[in-house]
Amino acid sequence: MMIAIKQVEEAFIKYVNKMVAYQEAISLMGWDLRTGAPKQGVEQRSNVIGILSAEAFQMSTSEEMAAYIAKLSTSEAKQSLSQVTLKLVEESKKEYDKNKKIPADEYKEYVILQSQAESVWEEAREKADFELFRPYIEKLVAFNKKFIGYWGYKENKYNTLLDMYEPGVTVKTLDDVFGKLRNQIVPLVKRISESANAPETEFLFKHFPKEKQRAFTLEILKQMGYNFEAGRLDETVHPFAVSLNPGDVRVTTRYDENDFRMAVFGTIHEGGHALYEQNISKKLMGTPLCDGTSMGIHESQSLFYENFVSRNKSFWKQNYDLLKEYAPDQFDQVSLDEFYRAINESKPSLIRIEADELTYPLHIMIRYEIEKGLFNDEIAVKDLPEIWNQKYEEYLGIKPENDSVGVLQDVHWAGGSFGYFPSYALGYMYAAQLKNTMIKDLPNYDKLLEEGNLLPIREWLTEHVHQYGKMKEPLNILKDITGEGLNVQYLIDYLYEKYTKIYQLT
Amino acid sequence: MMIAIKQVEEAFIKYVNKMVAYQEAISLMGWDLRTGAPKQGVEQRSNVIGILSAEAFQMSTSEEMAAYIAKLSTSEAKQSLSQVTLKLVEESKKEYDKNKKIPADEYKEYVILQSQAESVWEEAREKADFELFRPYIEKLVAFNKKFIGYWGYKENKYNTLLDMYEPGVTVKTLDDVFGKLRNQIVPLVKRISESANAPETEFLFKHFPKEKQRAFTLEILKQMGYNFEAGRLDETVHPFAVSLNPGDVRVTTRYDENDFRMAVFGTIHEGGHALYEQNISKKLMGTPLCDGTSMGIHESQSLFYENFVSRNKSFWKQNYDLLKEYAPDQFDQVSLDEFYRAINESKPSLIRIEADELTYPLHIMIRYEIEKGLFNDEIAVKDLPEIWNQKYEEYLGIKPENDSVGVLQDVHWAGGSFGYFPSYALGYMYAAQLKNTMIKDLPNYDKLLEEGNLLPIREWLTEHVHQYGKMKEPLNILKDITGEGLNVQYLIDYLYEKYTKIYQLT
């Protein structure tokens, strides 16, 4: 009997290896499409990606998969399986249940709707015409409500969507942390807006040749511990990091020759994602567990490097001179302090992805409140533009002049991704909380940054976060490291301390 | 009943679409591995390629495939199927029979042997030690003999292998054409070796910066009609062209800064392959028929451009000035005539891939005679180095100093590819024969070259060759264009005329 289970386990592992192989092929095709695939091949390439994706999806809901899950879920089986296999079975079951509960024809209809909606959204955004997009987002919301019906929910319907991206995080948690954040940040943002001590920023926008930016960025990635034998840096319109396997984790960036911040901070951000994927335990290779455990934990890694490393003054004590070597004229008359204050300017803005550290969480909060309202039937799709604009005025004191820079700015909803946005803010809170524990282990944290010795930071993150891949749930990772649950106070303290100093608030 | 057949046909097309989708993913992964994939990801990537390849192979021999073939091969079905489907069924059956006749365990053993043999071959070549490689090639030959037993043969055992690469071409054909070629070329090579009119070539080997070579090469590809919206040019150690789909056909090249010929003629050669794939009818997209019809016809396209276009003096009447723009000093003191003669120098050499136009067929002939001997039990593997060296002395008047530049120089046998080499020479003969017909349609052929107006040539090749993909057998393509079968005389005439002129033989 034991032998039989071992055989089933082996066959099951081989089965998931195949699904992961499809995923690697799909990811590479996606990377290639964005980094330079010739445009006349795109249509057929999309068909190919569609065929392989359908195959992988079919495998996740097949009778064969159901049989593996059943055979490997008996109490007898559980006693003889490795921890990795147990977790694999658990994850596979979760995926199977999720996918299987939706009737096949509805799912197909939904997939077609998604791709139509994305293309209509592009047009609507261009024309700043929400009405064009409205029928599509209405259907997308309706589909997701129906899916919640199939999947079931606890306490709040929106919880089911949140759980897809951040297992264990609920409306209750988010109401609490966002409430605290709002109470503290909104007044701070207001004080800063009224402050007379805004930094000079003009010098940031001088011409900085792309090739020089790239060279500097490569130096910083190296400093972070990004392994170039297991990755590469390319150029794309929308930057991203993608893991093909832990030995091949690629980063892309975008260059603005009149604003070096885009490439530098963008690459550091994506580099943080990449460090996570490069350092997942090789024991998980070839399985779906060889992946970040959640969107929020993933974002905690990118934001850790972007905010807690590269927007820290210590980091620039050495790297500012390096930056000057690549951009010799631009910063000649600018002191380190002026530079540091400039890159940390905070100013209410309309576009999420251009927001600074302080105002960013407010952008997320607005989206969270709207999504929660949508799925609890408190907000109707037709009212989205108005509600969006009201909230921007309330939280940030500015109002979008049209929907293109308002409710139509993000692609997420067009792709049917509801429940995703909160991960961005959660990642930020996680990062602040991790930092608070990290400095107990690395009390010379700022000194390390000053010396450009970032390796101990990467090693700490690998030990406590990276290596586990999907073996640990996000909130367990947090608990094991910090001894507590999600606690937004660390982020609030960080922002208060930093911004009262930069803006010399009394 | 008709409806039933239509349904089977649709399902069958969908099935082959899937196989082709796997192939596109596999090809992209291969391209990526050679153009810059990070090395630590290679091992897992190879697993992924292995998994997808096994899947595609399995699909070609599955019961589902057998059922499609059976249902679509009835005389009733044949009446209602499109030409494309009929050909698809024919090709699928051929593939099915070929793969199915080999017992699965033997095939698996053979695949493992292939990959071991390639790695041992690399070592053996490095050490110039044939004995190291001998046990592997012995097994590879033995396997292929056994496979011939399974597959059966007509007249000559080696015919079965030839047919894999060049359907319809037999030992009888090759003995005939190679005999004629040998009788004419060997004496010509000898006369040239003894000629006092060898061209100066020193100026070819001056420093020519890689970026400049690349820029020039891009100009030439454009001139050829290579569509950059359906392709791209990258750098690799071993140049190749690869079709992902007709809208995405990529070329790679290699730069030697002290010998611009490698990149320029190499890219033109691969560009010829790429033009074929870019111009296959879109009606065949997504099916295995959307591919070159044979190795020989494929090579006819690359060699047409390499030899009949870019080693033609008319081609350089305009492009020599262009070349000078990119390499200003190198050719200042060199007349067009001197340049033309230098790039057409002929000299017996040991390495096939470095051979010139005139001696190249002799390299192929030697491999052909050896392969034919091996599979007819007239040559034993252990005698290969000796026989190899004898033949080089006989045909080319030079003798390899060791096996690394002798019998171990090519990878083909290590990969189990016996019967492949003749395609190179066939492609050359086809190209000469096509050219002979083409100039009847394009009597101003040389003028077109002089004007850099290569488009009518590409269009002619598309009309007569490219568009058909695998819809026509190689010898049918030849017959439909030229009205005759394979005729080596055109190549002999071409070489005679060209080389007696360049070497001023009387």
From TrEMBL, chains A, B:
It catalyses: Release of a C-terminal amino acid with broad specificity, except for -Pro. Keywords: Carboxypeptidase, Hydrolase, Metal-binding, Metalloprotease, Protease. Its EC number is 3.4.17.19. GO terms for molecular function: carboxypeptidase activity. SUPFAM superfamilies: Metalloproteases ('zincins'), catalytic domain. Transmembrane segments: none annotated. It comes from the Bacteria. Broad specificity carboxypetidase that releases amino acids sequentially from the C-terminus, including neutral, aromatic, polar and basic residues. Belongs to the peptidase M32 family. PANTHER family: CARBOXYPEPTIDASE 1 (PTHR34217:SF1), METAL-DEPENDENT CARBOXYPEPTIDASE (PTHR34217). This is Metal-dependent carboxypeptidase. It comes from Cytobacillus purgationiresistens.
